[in-house]
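A reminder from the course coordinator: this example appears on the midterm review sheet, so study it carefully.

Given structure:
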């Protein structure tokens, strides 16, 4: 199968993800998305400590949130930025000590100093990576011309052949962009209704709502 991934300039959902200390255990446990256990992500840690951290995985952020609330203990977690305020208010995170983070001064202040990631003058989140939400399609079935417009997601000819992210942020990024809204932080009620109506048109075409990159890759590979 030939698969071509295209990042559409107007369809970028930039997502910051970071680490937040929760507990101090003898063994470092990282609560993360599947895929981040790739050794290339933490070579400096392995070089210094001689071994990789222990990983525990979650399929989506609500699952992670509920697991932590039920008592699961981890030393570092990897939520997306939009979930951090909820996790802070729920008491799931402990504040970070910037004096112990060598690269704190090198972090982009536009990300590091976002007020939603701080409480009582203390930071709870370190931005460490970001990504784009892209349009991916099977070139044996579609051409680039078929996906030049986001309206393709709602086209009846693609019934049962569409998959979108199983989270509100990605879904409404698609809905707003497809209906002409590029900055949804200032969206009106009418624009929200239009985006919702578009997503309702997309839903009958959806074969599966993917939770992570691994499940999306499996869908593409299965045809």
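Designed residues:
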């Amino acid at each position: 199968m030939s698969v071509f991934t295209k990042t559409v300039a107007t369809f970028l959902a930039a997502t910051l993800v970071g680490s937040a200390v929760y507990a101090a255990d003898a063994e470092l446990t990282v609560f993360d998305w599947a895929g981040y256990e790739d050794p290339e992500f933490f070579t400096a840690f392995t070089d210094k400590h001689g071994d990789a951290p222990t990983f525990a995985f979650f399929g989506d952020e609500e699952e992670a949130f509920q697991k932590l609330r039920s008592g699961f203990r981890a030393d570092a977690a990897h939520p997306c930025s939009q979930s951090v305020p909820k996790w802070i208010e729920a008491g799931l995170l402990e504040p970070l000590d910037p004096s112990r983070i060598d690269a704190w001064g090198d972090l982009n202040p536009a990300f590091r100093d976002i007020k939603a990631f701080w409480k009582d003058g203390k930071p709870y989140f370190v931005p460490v990576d970001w990504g784009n939400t892209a349009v991916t399609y099977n070139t044996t079935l579609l051409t680039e011309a078929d996906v030049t417009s986001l309206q393709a997601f709602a086209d009846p000819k693609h019934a049962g052949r569409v998959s979108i992210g199983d989270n509100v942020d990605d879904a409404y990024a698609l809905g707003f962009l497809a209906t002409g809204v590029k900055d949804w932080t200032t969206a009106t009620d009418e624009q929200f209704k239009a985006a919702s109506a578009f997503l309702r048109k997309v839903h009958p075409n959806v074969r599966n709502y993917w939770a992570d990159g691994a499940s999306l890759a499996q869908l593409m590979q299965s045809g």
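The chain has two domains: 17-129, 149-222. The chain is about 25% helix and 20% strand.
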